[in-house]
Structure formats: C-alpha cells, structure tokens
Amino acid sequence: MLGFRSVRRAPRARLLAAAAALAIVLAEGALAAPQNVILMIGDGMGFGHVEAARLYAGSPFAFEGAPHQAQMTTDSYTSQQIGGPTDSAAAATAMSTGRKVHNTVVSVAVPGDVSELETLGETMKARGKSVGLVTTSYLTDATPAAMAAHALIRIQTEAIADDYLNDTRVDVLLGGGANGLMAGAGLAAGYTVVSDRAGLEALGTSAPGPVLGLFGDSSEGMPFEWDHARGTDPGYDTLPFLHEMTSSALSFLDDDPDGFFLMIEQEGTDRAGHQSGSGIDRIGRDVFAVLEFDRAVEAVLAWMAGRDDTLLLVTADHETGGLEVLGDNGVGFLPTVSWSTSDHTRTNVPVYAFGPSAELVSGVIDNTDIRSIAIVPEPGTILLVAVGLAGLAARGRGRPRISGGTEPSRPRAP
Ligand SMILES: [Zn+2]
Prior knowledge:
Alkaline Phosphatase, subunit A, 10-stranded mixed β-sheet, disordered N terminus, alpha/beta, globular, 41% helix, binds zinc ion, single chain
C-alpha cells in the first residue's frame, strides 16, 4: 500500500516541489534575465595571449578577477567531422545561436535545412531591447555578423550589411568600414553616419537614432594599436580606440529602458596570431591588442559600477597562433614567446563572467552554451512556468473525482 501510494503521489509531489523551487528562485531573482547583456570577444585570445599581455602590464587584468570563470571548448561542426579548428564564423554562430555549423557559415543551419538560425541580436530585439555591435575588424566580418545577420558564406558581406541595416535594424554599429557596409546604405536606412573620433564624440551621449560608425576603409579592419604606439601607423590619431567606441556604444544603448545587447570584439589578437615568424611586431601587436581590449573591459566595468542588472561575458571565439609564453622579461617588456602555427587552434579559451547569470559560467562549458547563458528566461517566463507546474499539480489532486477513467495522462498503478 505504501509503495502504491508513493508511486501515485510522486508526480504531483515533484510538480509541487518544482513549482515551489521556481517560486523561490523567482523571489530571489536568481534566474531573472539580466536587463543588459554585454558579450566581449577577444578574437583568437587564448590563455597564452592573456598571460603574455599580463606580464607586459605587470599585474592581472580586471577581467581576470571575475567572480565566475570557466574554460570553453571551441569546436565547430567541421572540427567534429573532419578535425581542425573552427573559424570565426562557426564559432560566433555557436555562441549566438547555440548551434554548431560548418566553418564559414554565418547563423544558417548547415548542416540542416539551410534555414536562418535565430541570433542573439534577433532574440534581444524580440524582447524589445536595443542591439549594438562594436569591433576593430570591419563591421561585416564573421564575428559581429553571426550576432545579427545570416549568410551561407561569410564573404557575402553585402548581404550581411543589408541584414544589419534593414532586417535586424542594429541600433549601434561601430567598427572598420569597407567590405560591403557603405555610408550611403546607412544613410538610406535612416542611420546617422560618422567616420572618425571627432564625429563620434560630436554625437555626445545620446544617439539621435541608429548610429553607423565606419572608421577607416582598410579591408583588414582598423589598425593595430602597437603600430600607432610605435609611430608607424597614424590611424588612431583620428580614429577611435576600442575603449572609446565601447564607451560611446554604452552611452547610446543605455537610453533604452528595455535594456540592450552589446557585442564588443577585439580583432587584433587574431590578426597578430595569423602572422608568421617570431618577430617583435607579432607579439607586440598581440600584447597591445589585449591591453586595448582590457581598456574596453574597464570601460564596461566602470559603466556597470553600482548596477546589478547587467551580465558581462568576456571570452574568445578560439585561440590563434598556438601562443605559449616561454619567459617573463619584466614590466613594460614583451615576454619571450613561441608560436606553433599561423592558424587557429582547438585549445580551450577562457570565459570571465560578471553580474546576474554569471554563476552559470563554471568548469568547462561549450561555445554553444553562451547563448543559453545570455538568454536566461525573462522573469515573466519563469513565473508562467511556475504557475503552470502548480496548475498541473492541482489538477493531479482533483483527479480522483473525475469519472470515466479514460484520462490519458493519469498515472497507472503498477
Ligand atoms: Zn582568425
């Protein structure tokens, strides 16, 4: 008899317990969706890149003090099928859509039915939030593209630009010009277009509407910070650094009472890793790219100070160059390093997390987990689930009064 009773009661008890647990979680706000989500990606920035830059800087970076940290696996569908590392398109697609695709594919189901996979940008737009993309690469490059656009092949930059401007309607686009995203198309779509630091600063802290910043016209993206520091490239005399683009994007996006999603990418860490040889420029460009990335993180953390409504994830899409630190040469001196390749590697990358939902980042996660961490159900959704479970439990309680015995969901006695 006891066994019989416990078997019949177990589902109802479990439902009630689940509803109660969810109600507690809801009350504590532990699973409440963050108002704002900021995803920062050092393209190609593996552990070795962070270590090399830390030795130059002489102390740990602010992001290394994140309360929640993990390693992340970076394989694409291609990696799993035939080996080799992911590219930035498949890696960003995994983070944005939660799906592994073939290398070079931008948020489209390949393998699969070639349908468009919902991006983080689109999900956040559907929740009424503003969306921003900031990068030191050209804006139509694969990493920002997979956050808010779709293309069978990443080189379809005009289609990516059209998705940004006319489909997803990304609110803030700041990065390198060239490669498919033209000022004229932005103006035609109602964007305010700026092309240098002065133009960006002239906008102040409130955007008049959607903003498109096209900084420079190099097909490779914006210059290396190292080259500017060495006096060999004057680009940043007039172009905004990553941390300046970051601060401007935050000041525009935080006007939205519904919150925002902002992706910020440093591309220089990848471009340096793709170079060959072991000359000083390669590690110099890499270290200075990480240093500038850290300045952008600090700008975000300064903006977040005193707030508890923003999730910040700092990570990489993959490692580039197989960088290993061999020796510390002291503060202000580049460390001695080795590079094992001019390509990407399959090495795990770091993830640093701050704010609500950050506790979901621990141990070893996969790149496809980033989407679910970033889009934790909104509070209303959790409340509905809790009410639904409680309702199911209540229905179970009333069941004995139902006559006929044909109820399909009624648990059978053993
Ligand atoms: Zn790369």
